[in-house]
Write a structure and sequence with these properties.
Family: Belongs to the trans-sulfuration enzymes family.
Structural class: alpha/beta
GO biological process, one term: L-homocysteine biosynthetic process
Number of helices: 17
Radius of gyration: 22 Å
Number of domains: 2
Cofactor: pyridoxal 5'-phosphate
Bound molecules: pyridoxal-5'-phosphate
CATH class of the largest domain: Alpha Beta
Keywords: Lyase, Pyridoxal phosphate, Transferase
Helix content: 25-40%
Order of helices and strands: HHHEHEHEHEHEHEEHHHHHEHEHEEHEH
Largest sheet: 7 strands, mixed
Mean pLDDT: 95
Oligomer: single chain
InterPro entries: Cys/Met-Metab_PyrdxlP-dep_enz (IPR000277), OAc-hSer/O-AcSer_sulfhydrylase (IPR006235), PyrdxlP-dep_Trfase (IPR015424), PyrdxlP-dep_Trfase_major (IPR015421), PyrdxlP-dep_Trfase_small (IPR015422)
Strand content: 5-15%
Number of strands: 12
Length: about 425
């Protein structure tokens, strides 16, 4: 990793062409790589030599993007996955097995909640969901002897809860387990959880990182800081029978976790993105440092407008001084939070849908966090499967409108909101 500032790293990290090679990251659309001897190929399989041999495990285009993201987050290594969902699954399954337990914030993305609460339970992994704002002593009560990880979102989608990263890092470390942070909403431009004690950072790179809604991608970043040798993680310290008895910590040191994720889980689960998607993600990353401040600036203007309008029941934007999360946001992301604002219009669920249907510039789409302003009603879409109680725990009220402010002219976005409110 270079010493350049983050803006420079967005552009310069990752692909480093040798003399005469393409300046721009090429799309290596190849499943396979040719070698002169079977012996060398054997060494690659034994992880004794670095190199590419099959794109399910690694690909030069994806490798360059992984290096860039690892640099942006301040980690020792990263692995791209075919989606944010795959990143969440693999980040936990890499260290937690059937019969073990995870402590998770209740304020998380609806898809992640279903993955944990339904699908991963079927895999024998137990979860306890805690209110992120609960006192440290309260949260501590849910830890068990078999707890192996703690999972939070830095800014929860869509509740916009800013989670106290240091509080959860303290709790996790006190119990000898890592803290995994989904950092999708602030992106490393606005928040770098590893600096506050996170051990693993994951992303739905589908959102701001790609930024243009072109490709579904995920990524897992390893801080390289967690000590896996405390006896709780034999998968990282004992021989891996499925990989010629390799011991990850012994052989790969700080990169043990991310190497195991790749050589064991990516090999077996195969959730690899296409090289084409890696190329598009890389293009997005090159302007991430320009787009994020504009998203935040526009979102702040929208939030301030909504806060003053009498037809609005409530507004939640962690950048607003009136937000209960303002001080946490100032601490963890002083340069800005994200472009997503949530609010309720007076008149509840019905008014919410009428308002949304009247919008002209802001499109109703199942997406969030890209260049174009878009809007969604989580209670009837992404969080549809949740009970009222689960909705409340996740911080999603039935009238919540998730408004993802794009990078258009803020005045145009506000005028669109105004005309839709006039229609109510
Ligand atoms: C969208 C999202 C996910 C899931 O990512 P996909 O790329 O859609 O699979 C996970 N976490 C957060 C915070 C998200 O916004």
């Amino acid at each position: 990793m270079s010493d350049y500032r983050i803006e420079t790293r967005c552009i310069q990290e990752g692909w480093k062409p040798k003399n005469g090679e393409p300046r721009v990251l090429p799309i290596y659309q190849s499943t396979t790589y040719q070698y002169n001897s079977s012996e060398q190929m054997g060494r690659l399989f034994d992880l004794e030599e670095e190199g590419f041999f099959y794109t399910r495990l690694a690909n030069p285009t994806l490798d360059a993007v992984e290096k860039k993201i690892a640099s942006l987050e301040g980690g020792v290594g990263a692995m791209m996955t075919s989606s944010g969902q795959a990143a969440s699954l693999i980040s936990i399954f890499n260290i937690v097995s059937a019969g073990q337990h995870v402590v998770s914030s209740a304020a998380i993305y609806g898809g992640t909640f279903n993955l944990f609460n339904v699908t991963m339970r079927k895999m024998g992994i137990d979860f306890t969901f805690v209110k992120p704002d609960a006192a440290e002593e309260e949260i501590e009560k849910v830890f068990q002897d078999n707890t192996r990880a703690v999972f939070i979102e830095s800014i929860a989608n869509p509740a916009l809860v800013v989670t106290d990263i240091e509080k959860f890092a303290r709790l996790a470390h006190k119990h000898g387990v890592p803290l995994i942070v989904d950092n999708t909403f602030p992106t490393p431009i606005n928040c770098r959880p590893i600096e506050f004690g996170a051990d693993i950072v994951i992303h739905s790179a589908t959102k701001y990182m790609d930024g243009h809604a072109t490709s579904v991608n995920g990524v897992i970043v390893d801080s390289g800081k967690f000590d896996w040798t405390n006896g709780k993680f034999p998968g990282l310290t004992e021989p891996d029978d499925s990989y010629h008895g390799v011991k990850y910590v012994e052989s790969f040191g700080p990169a043990a976790y991310i190497t195991k994720a790749r050589t064991q889980l990516m090999r077996d689960l195969g959730a690899i993105p296409s090289p084409q998607n890696g190329f598009l993600l890389n293009l997005g990353l090159e302007t991430l440092h320009l787009r994020m401040p504009r998203h935040c600036e526009n979102a702040m203007k929208v939030a301030q407008f909504l806060e003053k309008d009498h037809r609005i029941a409530w507004v939640n934007y962690p950048g607003l001084p009136s937000s209960p999360y303002y001080s946490l946001a100032q601490k963890y992301m002083p340069n800005g939070t994200c472009g997503v604002v949530s609010f309720g219009v007076k008149g509840g669920r019905e008014a919410a849908t009428k308002f949304m249907d009247s919008l002209k510039l802001a499109a109703i789409v199942t997406h969030v966090a890209d260049a174009r302003t878009c809007v969604l009603h989580p209670a009837s879409t992404t969080h549809r499967q949740l009970t009222d109680e689960q909705l409340e725990e996740a911080g999603v009220t039935p009238d919540l409108i998730r408004f993802s402010v794009g990078i258009e002219n803020a005045e145009d976005i506000i005028e669109d909101i105004e005309q839709a409110l006039n229609n109510l």
